[in-house]
Each structure stands twice: as structure tokens, then as C-alpha cells.
Amino acid sequence: MLFGLGKSPIPVIRPLRPHKAADCARLHAADFAHPWSAQEIAALIARSATLAAAALDPASGELRGFVLSRLAADEAEILSVAVDPAWRGRGVGRALLAEALRQAANAGAKSMFLEVDESNPPALALYARFGFVKVGERVGYYRRKDGSRATAVVMRKILA
């Protein structure tokens, strides 16, 4: 997208730093019934086993989305992906997912896992486009805002 044509610039992907934790918590709250606090997110970012990336507006530096992953031996797991609701459908999630996969592979992970709500077709489609396949389910894993429970689809992508 170009400046001057009434479109917003495409966010740039950068390392996620702890000073963005409050912004991450705000985005997380827009996506999840039980969001993580800024303190929880800052603690995750600070851990040596955490891989983290931010999608930032190139002009303002505002956070448009983030991804947090964790390494364990030769596996990685995406802990959370959150995109500002106003920026969904613009490739932000795709760019963050690509960065998470790149970071995990560079850190020596042989596979990447994630869990996603079975009632989230856009996320399921994105993960499938990246080569993730369903390897299991966790019935009642997610608690929705209305108190009902949702099944998590467990997915894996082989990296090496």
C-alpha cells in the first residue's frame, strides 16, 4: 500500500521489545476472552526461550500486531498471534507468522506447533496456507467471553 493514495502503509516486522507490552496486552484483549496482562507479556518477551516479533506502523511506530513463540529443545510453539482489528485482512498476520517460522528455524527448531479455536476460519486458513496440518484437538480448551467452551485444533508444521 502506498502513501498518498488514501491507504495506510504496510507495517514492518521488527523484534518485539518489552516496552510494547502494554500495547500487546491491548491487542490481546481484543482477540481473547481471557487476555494476558502487560506484565505477563513483558515477562514472556524477556525469557531467553521466547521468540517475539512486532508489526509496527512505519510512520508512527504504533503496534499493529505481534507474535510470541517459545522454544523447547528442537520444537517451537506459537503462544499467541494478535492483530489490531482495524488491520486484519491486510497481511499483518501472514507477515508475523512468516517471521515466527523464520525465527524458529534459525533457532534450530525442527517443527512448530500451535493451537487455534476451531471456530476461527481465517486463522485456520492462514495456517493451512503455511503448511500446518491438524495433529489433534483439545475439546473445551478455550473459554469464550460468553462462558461457553471451544475446541482447540492442534496443528504442526515440519520446519526441517
Task: Please characterize this protein's 3D structure.
This protein has 160 residues and is α+β, with helices and mostly antiparallel strands. It has a domain at 12-114: Gcn5-related N-acetyltransferase (GNAT) (Aminopeptidase, 3-Layer(aba) Sandwich), CATH 3.40.630.30. The chain is 28% helix and 36% strand. The chain contains four helices and seven strands; from the N terminus they run E-H-H-E-E-E-H-E-H-E-E. It has helices spanning 21-31, 38-46, 92-106, 121-129, and strands at residues 12-15, 50-56, 63-72, 75-83, 111-117, 133-143, 149-158. The protein has a seven-stranded mixed sheet with strand order 1-2-3-4-5-7-6, sandwiched between helices. A hairpin with a 5-residue loop joins strand 6 (133-143) and strand 7 (149-158). Helix 1 (21-31) crosses helix 2 (38-46). The radius of gyration is 15 Å and the shape is globular. Residues 1-6 have low confidence and may be disordered.
Amino-to-carboxy terminus distance? 33 Å
Q: Identify low-pLDDT runs.
A: 1-6
CATH topology of one domain: Aminopeptidase
Portion of residues in beta strands equals 35-45%
SSE-based structural type:
alpha+beta
Q: Which H/E pattern describes the elements? A: EHHEEEHEHEE
What is the count of helical runs? 4
Number of strands: 7
What is the architecture of one domain at the second tier of CATH?
A: 3-Layer(aba) Sandwich
Q: Looking at this structure, what is the CATH superfamily of one domain?
A: Gcn5-related N-acetyltransferase (GNAT)
CATH class bucket of one domain = Alpha Beta
Q: Portion of residues in helices?
A: 25-40%
- Give a short account of the largest sheet: 7 strands, mixed
Principal-axes shape call: globular
Radius of gyration: 15 Å
Estimate the mean pLDDT confidence: 92
For the biggest β-sheet, the strand order reads 1-2-3-4-5-7-6
